[in-house]
Records
---
Amino acid sequence: MRINQMILVSVFALISFSCQKKISLKEIKAQTSEGIFQMLVEIPSGTNAKIEYNKELKDFKIDQKNGKDRYINYLSYPGNYGFIPHSVQSKKEGGDGDALDVLLISKKLKTGTIVQFKPLGYLKLRDEGELDIKIIGVPIDEKLKIISAENFKDFSTDYRSARRIIQLWFENYSDDDVDILGWYDENATIDLINDSINEEETK
């Protein structure tokens, strides 16, 4: 039964994003002209397939490990997961060299959706010895919102249990050794994103 379920999930995931047009990161800015941050959704909320954007193919594929598609063997993603185009977690600062990850707390969005968001804060963790940053955000579009938090204080006070759930999820969703290093507010997050974009542009 477990194998059949995984096959069905795999087929559904492939159908859901295989027909989309190819996306070039050159067409997407990290910020709008008004200074609003943007992210590209890879993994829709409620999905357990490890979908990733491939720069060379300009398309989305399920990541593979040892020749097999990767799935989260835990609760599905608690939000829409993706990254900020043209950002990078600097290896000089202990990062993995990849783009900054974003977990967007919103209604479910399709793979390949470009969405404007407001950062509430970020969770810093160490994954297998490498620094890893998980930005938590909410959509600018009111129709996509599911919580009313506008900043880290709102999120920590009014949605304390949601914050705890997110932290527990990142601690347990993979087989890697993960250490939680702390939470940071929206101002620290904005500075982090701006620095990461500058880092990418100077590469």
Note: The mean pLDDT is 89.
---
Amino acid sequence: MDIVYYVATSLDGYIATDDGGVNWLPVPDLEGEDYGYTEFYASIDAVLMGRSTYEKSLEFGEWVYPGKPCWVFSRQQIDINQPDVTLTSRHPDEVVAELKARQLKRAWLVGGGRLATSFRAHGLISEYIITIIPTMLGKGIPLFTPSDRLEKLKLVDTQTFEDGVISLRYIQQPKG
């Protein structure tokens, strides 16, 4: 089971404004260019996110993660009114075990610096796809919150787009 943290960040390391806003993210100007999103989305079997990301995604109107089972991590009870969405307060290890039991191969860890930090702290993220947007937010929700975990990563792919956006793909450094 691969957990992929696929996320856009500002050049100064923020994934959203303080209120969770992402309207600073660029809309590709080039016809047919989506920064690899369509190909990535086709490669995943499931979606994992925190409550704040889930609630923010509902503001787009139509469910933006169709056709994929989704787990929303929250310690609070919230209304879930999307098919294939499961609310969970379980530990990330337990949810990953469930994904494996369902024979899912690849899950997208969406948004949420805190949730990503939790997955990272338990060594659950196998791949990072970080897309750097040439914008400085100055403040906001950080890509990661502080952690004691040291990780050695291997850069396996880069993509540069005409508008200055850069995508970096890292995997866990092989042990040994």
Note: The beta strands are 2-10, 14-16, 46-50, 70-73, 85-88, 106-109, 127-133, 141-142, 153-160, 166-172.
---
Amino acid sequence: MNYWFNPGRTVILASGSPRRKQILSLMGFSFNTIVPTEFNENLYLDSDHLNESLQKLASIKARTVSEANPEALVLSADTVVVNDSVILGKPAGYEDAFKMLKSLSGKKHKVVTGVALLCAEENFCKTTVVSTSVFFRSISDQEIEHYLHFPEYQDKAGSYAIQGKAMIFIDRIDGCFYNVVGLPVSGTISLFNEFIFRKEPSNV
């Protein structure tokens, strides 16, 4: 297959997320996937300094993969849902998911993603943060219970997948749809462009 987007180096997606794999493929990239070493992400997340902590977290994930692949361009991302200044991660179980969805009903919340692109060999590391506002319509307890019969909520921040059955909960969004899925397209392309069009070191 011919890929139209070629940054000139091997691209590695430091994520096990099938949604991020799909988005990056749709964007036209050829890439490999390496899942970074697991660690307690909550130690790095700070609701008072969310943008900075998400960028740091994405950078840490990228660096863990870049250590063994210094010549590659490593892309990493971390997405959270923020409701009334409270960070909603992945649910611990059914009851936790129910409480999350109940808290989102009839309200606006934000989905925020920190993205990092790193190439150790080129001493290149850039990050960005993208935020999308999501508006839920009012949803009943019965609708939530019915949705939670399906497993798609289990590994999702905020306990829902906007591209899945939870689409019926959405009134509207303001911002990048793909950011809510897990990888903001425009923000990601901007990072790759920064690498491609960076100034080469002067030999003078």
Note: The chain has a mean pLDDT of 92.
